[in-house]
Design goal:
With 921 residues, the protein is α+β, with helices and mostly antiparallel strands. It has 32 helices and 18 strands. A hairpin with a 2-residue loop joins strand 1 and strand 2. Helix 15 packs across helix 16, helix 19 packs parallel to helix 22 and helix 30 packs across helix 31. Bound molecules: adenosine-5'-diphosphate and magnesium ion. The site of adenosine-5'-diphosphate (ADP) has 13 residues, from helix 4. It is found in: Cytoplasm, Cytoskeleton.
Length: 921
């Protein structure tokens, strides 16, 4: 043994000192296999994280500075697609998890409105391919094994969630289905050279803390041996098969699976209760010309003395764990307590080791179970470890899924276990929506610009063509005309010349005839006839020529006419082209409008999200850990304290910007959208906007109030009712709006909404709205005759203090208006409240412990008592005693003295008090 192999250098991992350079004996791979390696030094290198870890072997042989990066278990979660049964049974239910692979997060639905969010190293949706799962989860581990590290790949999860599919699928029917074991062997075979390297495989089952050989069923109790010096784990009793090609490996897996099935049948158990373990040992000789490691050639001056060939050994362990549902079950489903205990033992020991590794604990309890003892040299530390946790989508198995996720979370680093707050998800979702939106907007803009440009270009071209054709035609016409005019003038001129020539000649001839009397008349006469004949024939010729050119002119004209019709045709076709383009433009515009509609919808959703996020943030900031009951609270707080509003210096640029972008009209139009989700988003946005006094007038002017009232009538969705009623309550703070609400049948709508509501928050909003209307002097009679008071009193059935407080506020408001009217002399007779039976409720609740209700009731009693017309009834119903109590005990000075004043100024009360000898001073 050379000196270098004997050197042991300190290597700290998780606080434990370990040898980084150590001696490895061939005994670790015995069991009938003939080993040619005697004693080799193997450099154990630090391993970067497996899943998604960078390139291996950061420190090369001989570099010395092996820092021993602790290998955190890398955890991926994989969701199985719904199976046939779930598609039917769970059709009406959402999956119990929602995956966000782009941010590597998993949201676990706790109930309809609450989720927990967890982060993993990788999140695989039901669409993830086997290839990608292999590449992300297993490939880095396999590469490590080829580089001489040990590595482990495990699958953990409830039975039926895809552990075996992920790890052991053979993919004989469809190559795309091949699982991690098959792909890992393919990669290993491709990388090694079978002349110098070797691959050997064992396949085992661990059941009830007993290791069984799946390649030789007779071998059913195999011992685990640990080399105390090197820490290497081996199973000398296990069959070790040398693998030289993929086919023999596939056959081996099939054989193992058949034996597993047979063994389990014999033991009357099933595969979900045992762990299946595949061990692949890879031994590679790294040789250069003179036996040097090829990888160490860069440091050849240091390694030249290393004569013997360097052998690198890596061990890959793939573990298909028992179904995780076993961990907490015992005694049920026909398996023994003993069995439950031992399955528990291995899985919980594994959990403990994972925890210890994650927490960098100095002690990792590998010794606690067979499984962890087997994994000791291949798990954590310098080995690379990947864990796939498999889950199913069914909400029926939420419990199992939750515990699987928690197991996976514990396997992650401790800081990753912190649950993420919902608000972060708003951010990422909002960001995603924003990006999507921006892309859509950009694309739309580009298309629109290109289209407008194209239309302009085509129109201009058509115009040019037409005007050019017209010009050409006019020029040609003009030229022809000129030419014919010239010809004509010319011919006339010629004719005239000829004629005058002949005329002169004739005159001269006659003259000559008269002067010479003796001349021969006959000859003279003959000459004259000859000339005339000549002239006639010349004239004839001229005439002929003239008629020829006339014909030519006529031809030309008809040619031009033809040309003109031709041009006209061109024009007609150009016009139809323009029409076509116009139509296209119209279509495009429609398309654009549709897109804009979609954008507005998206915007509205985004707006709603931003508002909710704002709200959440504000709540978190304001109340710290104090419990708040969500967005609707803000309506009510604003309802009670409108003066809080200060839109001037509230900084919320993204919301304001979005609002501007979408426009109020668009948002209001979405209240009537076909899609219920869009309607809900829109009504929430409107409600949030209505909570700001600054927006209220605008909303009402744009018809928002009418739309909100219509929603109460047209939909049966209670969420919409609740939110719309909240918005109406906010708008009902203003006198003009109150009249509008009444005019549009608001009382009837609010009453029927209240009658059908189940959620106290809905009732609270409706009662708040009616309470606001009760404070309007002008609306008293109408409000009562349309059933407003009856509706208020009807809502006390729910008993929720928030609702009762609003009812009491309404009654106090109403009573106050009545007492004002009676002071002014416009009201006579009993209070409408008393007529509708409000007094007994008021008296019954006058002593309530809840301050918000009591204050309103006390005020209501004082206001009612101010009208002498009510006094008799108040005596009869016992309200007088409440007034006496208020005048004595009320904590508020002003109410106390008001009660006192009313008692002493009413003759009826005074008589009654005197009769019963009650002194109220
Ligand atoms: P486990 O080993 O966890 O008990 P299995 O791997 O046997 O689960 O999977 C149960 C069933 O679900 C099998 O029929 C398997 O083919 C199917 N299955 C599991 N995961 C997937 C997946 N990702 N895609 C398609 N089918 C899957
Ligand atoms: Mg299985």
């Amino acid at each position: 043994m050379s000196t270098s192999t004997g050197t042991v250098t300190g290597n700290y991992r998780n606080g434990t000192q370990r040898s980084s350079l150590r001696t490895q004996s061939s005994a670790s791979t015995s069991g009938g296999q003939k080993s040619t390696v005697k004693s080799k030094s193997v450099l154990r290198k630090s391993s970067p994280g497996a899943l998604g870890g960078g390139s291996s072997a950061a420190s090369k042989a001989g570099s010395g500075g092996d820092s021993g990066v602790p290998g955190r278990v890398r955890v991926a979660v994989r969701l199985r697609p719904r199976n046939g049964e779930e598609l039917i049974a769970d059709a009406d239910f959402a999956d119990c998890v929602e995956l966000q692979p782009e941010v590597k997060r998993l949201k676990l639905r706790k109930n309809n409105w609450d989720t927990d969010t967890f982060e993993f190293d990788e999140v695989f949706t039901e669409y993830a391919s086997q290839k990608r799962v292999y590449e992300v989860v297993a490939k880095p581990v396999v590469e490590g094994v080829l580089d001489g590290y040990n590595g482990t790949i495990m699958a953990y999860g409830q039975t039926g969630t895809g552990k075996t599919y992920t790890l052991g699928q053979l993919g004989e029917e469809d190559v795309a289905d091949r699982g991690i074991m098959v792909r890992a062997m393919e990669d290993i075979l491709a990388e090694v050279s079978l002349e110098t390297d070797s691959i050997s495989v064992s396949y085992l089952q661990l059941y009830m803390e007993t290791v069984q050989d799946l390649l030789d069923p007779a071998n059913d109790n195999i011992a685990i041996v640990e080399d105390p010096k090197s820490g290497d784990v081996s199973l000398p009793g296990a069959t070790l098969v040398e693998i030289r090609d993929q086919q023999s490996f596939l056959e081996l897996l099939q054989l193992g699976e058949a034996h597993r099935f047979a063994a389990n049948t014999k033991l009357n158990t099933e595969s979900s209760r045992s762990h299946a373990i595949l061990m692949v040992n890879v031994r590679r000789s790294l040789k250069t010309k003179d036996g040097l490691s090829s990888e160490s050639s860069g440091n050849s001056h240091m390694t030249k003395s290393l004569k013997p060939p360097v052998v690198r050994k890596g061990k890959l362990v793939v573990v298909d764990l028992a179904g995780s549902e076993r961990i907490n079950k015992s005694g049920s489903e026909g398996h023994t307590l003993e069995e439950a205990k031992s399955i528990n033992l291995s899985l919980s020991a594994l959990g403990k080791c994972i925890n210890a590794l994650a927490e960098n604990s100095s002690h990792v309890p590998f010794r606690d179970s067979k499984l962890t003892r087997l994994l000791r040299d291949s798990f954590g530390g310098t080995a690379r470890t990947s864990l796939v946790i498999t889950i199913g989508p069914s909400p029926r198995h939420r419990g199992e899924t939750t515990s699987t996720i928690m197991f996976g979370q514990r396997a992650m680093k401790v800081e990753n276990m912190v649950k993420l707050k919902e608000e972060f998800d708003y951010k990422s979702l909002s960001k995603r929506l924003e990006v999507q939106l921006d892309n859509l907007i950009e694309e739309n803009e580009r298309q629109q610009k290109a289209f407008v440009d194209e239309i302009e270009r085509i129109t201009a071209e058509a115009h040019n063509q037409i005007s050019e054709a017209e010009k050409r035609y006019a020029n040609a016409l003009e030229e022809e005309k000129l030419r014919y005019q010239n010809d004509y003038v010319e011919s006339i001129k010629k004719l005239e010349e000829n004629w005058s020539k002949n005329h002169k000649k004739l005159a001269a001839d006659r003259l000559a005839l008269g002067e010479k009397n003796g001349m021969d008349i006959t000859s003279n006469g003959n000459r004259s006839i000859t000339t005339t004949l000549e002239e006639v024939s010349e004239l004839k010729k001229l005439l002929q020529k003239e008629s020829q050119s006339k014909m030519a002119a006529e031809e030309e004209v008809s040619r031009l006419k033809l040309q003109l019709t031709e041009y006209m045709k061109v024009e007609v076709s150009a016009n139809s082209e323009i029409m076509r383009l116009h139509k296209m433009l119209e279509n495009e515009t429609q398309q654009k409008e549709k897109l804009e509609g979609e954008i507005a919808t998206l915007h509205t959703q985004l707006l709603q999200l931003s508002l909710t996020a704002d709200e959440t943030r504000r709540n978190l900031e304001k109340h710290g850990s104090e419990k708040t009951s969500g967005g609707l609270d803000s309506f009510m707080s604003q309802l009670r304290l409108p003066q809080i509003q200060d839109p001037g210096n509230v900084e919320k640029p993204p919301v304001a910007k979005l609002f501007e972008q979408v426009g109020l009209h668009k948002i209001l139009s979405l209240l009537e959208a076909d899609d219920a989700d869009v309607r809900i988003h829109a009504v929430k946005v409107v409600a949030n906007l209505a909570a700001e006094e600054a927006n209220q007038q605008q909303i009402v002017e744009a018809g928002g109030l009418t739309s909100l009232l219509m929603l109460l009538r047209s939909t049966e969705d209670e969420t919409i009712h609740r939110v719309a009623a909240g918005a109406i309550a906010n708008l009902a703070m203003n006198e003009t709006n109150q009249e509008l609400i009444m005019d549009q049948g608001g009382i009837g709508l609010l009453s029927s909404t209240a009658a059908n509501a189940h959620d106290p928050q809905t009732l609270r909003m409706v009662a708040g709205a009616i309470a606001n209307l009760c404070g309007n002097d002008k609306l008293q009679t109408k409000l009562r005759s349309e059933g407003g008071i009856a509706a208020l009193l009807g809502m006390v059935r729910c008993g929720h203090p928030d609702v009762l407080a609003q009812v009491a506020r309404g009654i106090a408001n109403f009573a106050k208006c009545e007492s004002r009217a009676s002071t002014q002399g416009t009201k006579r007779g009993k209070s409408l409240l008393i007529e509708d039976g409000a007094l007994s409720w008021v008296v019954q609740n006058a002593k309530t412990e809840i301050a918000a209700i009591r204050r309103h009731i006390e005020l209501a009693l004082c206001h009612l008592a101010q009208h002498e017309g009510n006094a008799k009834e108040m005596v009869k119903e016992g309200a007088i005693w409440e007034l006496v109590r208020i005048s004595r005990d009320c904590s508020r000075e002003d109410i106390r003295s008001l009660a006192h004043r009313t008692l002493t100024s009413s003759p009826t009360f005074l008589t009654e008090l005197r009769r019963l000898r009650v002194d109220i001073r």
